[in-house]
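Quick one: co-fold with 3-isopropylmalic acid.
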Amino acid sequence: MKFNIAVIPGDGIGPEVVEQAKKALDAVAEAYDHIFLYKEAQLGASAMSIDGNPLPKKTIEICKNADAILFGAVGNAKYDNDPSAKVRPEQGLLKLRQELDLFCKIKPVKAYDNLIYNSPLKREVIKGTDFIIFRELTGGIYFGEKKISDDEKSAYDASVYTVDEISRVTHLAFKAAKNRKKKVTLVDKANVLETSRLWRRTVIEIAKEYSDVEVEFMFVDNAAMKLILDPKQFDVILTENLFGDIISDEASVISGSIGLLASSSIGKNNALFEPIHGSYPLAKGKNIANPLASILSAAMLLEHLGLEEEADAIERAVEKSIALGITTKDIKRKTQKSTTTSKVGDFIADYITNQDDSN
Ligand code: IPM
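Sure, here it is.
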């Protein structure tokens, strides 16, 4: 089959890791007789360096017309350290989410048996962890009214949610739970925030439609602690935009490296796939960044296109590379030598091309 894929390498290590994900997709295309047509688009600081705009119109157009979007990373230290910058690279991604109405970010979190040694958490605490975060992505404090006073002595960011915004992501979370361990944990701050109380009321109503799914409520401060103390208790975590951003980085500690976690951001008509790590400017161009999260994002992309077998082939190749220790230095064992970003990508692509079903 033939698919159009928009590719946005973005900033920092984005281009390097996306290149490895494309190698994996090309290997899949060859092994399973598909055609992936890539269209490259700009976003973030790299787009700003061309004409100052972090999200060129052309990028929106390419993304809208694609079957799926593969994204690298966004961000540049130059802007992080300048609070007065009016235009920021991240605005490109936020605006793209809005333009395409990508209202839900899904992040699976797993403890890989072969990588448990790399997590600072105890083996017995994390072994067997397998949950998935459903983060609302186009509402809340990220997109509410923002203002700084004329004298720059006060500022606010409003957090606003509507029942409709809460409902659509909640349905996705419950549907996913039905096919998993049948438990949804709503993470909120309902003891303080009005928006969280609206989330609770809405989720309680919707839960009635999914009688086989257990629902529990947890304050975000408590959830932050439980994620580290007992992550195995979670199945599907449902939460608002800001809390979801924070707890998913925290959860990455469980998997042993943030360089391993992939995500999908989905809307009604479009879907974007990206690693959860950032642009890691210190590693840019050094061929040391871990490409596995980007490669696993490509696997999620294939699954989204209905190519489950092909997605499995990528996942198997990733597991093999970890098992054989063909990894970048962030996840290498003390006794192993690390390898480069591009060599990990080559191994994965070769493995996909050469493996047969008996592997
Ligand atoms: C993420 C990132 C983004 C966010 C940034 C880059 C705007 O941290 O996708 O999780 O905060 O949503």
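If it helps, Residues 68 and 141 are 27 Å apart (CA to CA).
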